[in-house]
UniProtKB/TrEMBL annotation:
GO (cellular component) term, any one: mitochondrion
Cofactor notes: Binds 2 [4Fe-4S] clusters per subunit. One cluster is coordinated with 3 cysteines and an exchangeable S-adenosyl-L-methionine.
Protein known as: Lipoyl synthase, mitochondrial
Originating species: Panicum miliaceum
Catalytic activity, as annotated: [[Fe-S] cluster scaffold protein carrying a second [4Fe-4S](2+) cluster] + N(6)-octanoyl-L-lysyl-[protein] + 2 oxidized [2Fe-2S]-[ferredoxin] + 2 S-adenosyl-L-methionine + 4 H(+) = [[Fe-S] cluster scaffold protein] + N(6)-[(R)-dihydrolipoyl]-L-lysyl-[protein] + 4 Fe(3+) + 2 hydrogen sulfide + 2 5'-deoxyadenosine + 2 L-methionine + 2 reduced [2Fe-2S]-[ferredoxin]
Annotated Pfam families: Radical_SAM
Subcellular location: Mitochondrion
Binding positions for [4Fe-4S] cluster 1 per the UniProt entry: 93, 98, 104, 352
Enzyme class: transferase
Region Disordered, residue ranges: 1-29
Length: 360
């Protein structure tokens, strides 16, 4: 495979640093969880791939000021954190150490205080261990993760009901070890979240449910079933530009496969809102970003999020450059000019960033 990651010159809008080649070891809430492995022994125990030529930290690279966040606090944040702990539910927000956790869980106004916007958290289903090993992701991996918790859908419905939220985001790890890729489990979850705590008990008849899914290995029947399960929004991330897919994502994922998932979700249900996300700072060029955005519009994706890639550990992809807030503002304007209904673009924006407000 050609080393396009190392050979391509950086975009003039991105200040790139040399990569290290070290091989050393309407709404109120939504929730996502990803678990991060700590320590080399733990990493090996869950089957992480060894460090490669695209990983390692560059000691000369310092995060710019616009990526700094205040310490998290706030009553809404504390309440959600306690509820998740009691029910033993996973969230990407906590486990992946998302920099937006305070802002999203508090409903705006940044990490240090509560806002009057829509609180958003993203619940991660099917456990905390993924069968894939994408080089950007901090979730632990294994070829044989524990079996899914049969009570997880009910626990999640209980949590959502106790929060009194109007918008919930459901996501999951990839489960290539399961015959249906885990789509059946997600189907039960979306139905429970939609009907048990709200429509059956008449607590919140108008709740909106978004699901951020895997690609189910390209199984479009699974996509169709989930799209017709009562979801209001269907999200799936292409993650990066086409030329960097094999470097950034697990080989079982793919650019064209992801576009097919988004296209099928859109046509499977009339009025379905679809969403995707692109990480920046991995060595992509401006023209490649423009092409990725055009490809997403070609399959009628409605909402796009763009944000700065941040390296979780030295075992993950090295940051190739930091994109300025001004450049991210440009991408927002450019995306809207292509016809996206909404584009969220900022240094700390992630795929579920304040998702309820974006959807509304």
């Amino acid at each position: 495979m050609q080393n396009s990651f190392a050979a391509r010159p950086p975009s003039p809008s991105v200040r790139a640093r040399p990569a290290s080649l070290s091989r050393r070891p309407r709404p109120r809430s939504a929730v996502v969880v990803r678990c991060q492995v700590e320590g080399e022994a733990a990493a090996k125990s869950v089957g992480w791939a060894p460090p490669g030529p695209y990983t390692g930290r560059d000691p000369e690279v310092k995060k710019p000021a616009w990526l700094r966040q205040r310490a998290v606090q706030g009553e809404k944040y504390a309440r959600l954190r306690e509820s998740l702990g009691e029910l033993k539910l996973n969230t990407v927000c906590v486990e992946a150490q998302c920099p937006n956790i305070g802002e999203c869980w508090n409903g705006g106004s940044g990490a240090g205080g509560e806002g009057d916007g829509i609180a958003t958290a993203t619940i991660m289903l099917l456990g905390d261990t993924c069968t894939r090993g994408c080089r950007f992701c901090a979730v632990k991996t294994s070829n044989k993760p524990p079996a899914p918790d049969a009570l997880e859908p009910l626990k999640t419905a209980m949590a959502v009901a106790s929060w009194g939220v109007d918008y919930v985001v459901l996501t999951s790890v990839d489960r290539d070890d399961l015959p249906d890729g885990g789509s059946g489990h997600l189907l039960k979850q979306s139905e429970l979240s939609s009907f048990i705590p709200y429509r059956t008990l008449e607590l919140k008849p108008g709740i909106l449910v978004e699901c951020l899914t895997s690609d189910f290995r390209g199984d479009l029947d699974a996509v169709s079933s989930l799209a017709n399960s009562g979801l209001d929004g269907y999200a799936h991330n292409i993650e990066t530009v086409k030329s960097l897919q094999r470097i950034v994502r697990d080989p079982r994922a793919g650019y064209d496969q992801s576009l097919a998932v988004l296209k099928h979700a859109k046509i499977s249900k009339a009025g379905m809102v679809t969403k995707s996300s692109i990480m920046l700072g991995l060595g992509e060029t401006d023209e490649e970003v423009k092409q990725a955005m055009a490809d997403l519009r070609a399959v009628d994706v409605d909402i796009l999020t763009l944000g700065q890639y941040l390296q979780p550990t030295e075992r993950h992809l090295t940051v190739r450059g930091y994109v300025t807030p001004e450049k991210l503002d440009f991408w927002k304007e450019y995306g809207e000019s292509l016809g996206f209904l909404y584009v969220a673009s900022g240094p700390l924006v992630r795929s579920s960033y304040r998702a309820g407000e974006l959807f509304a």
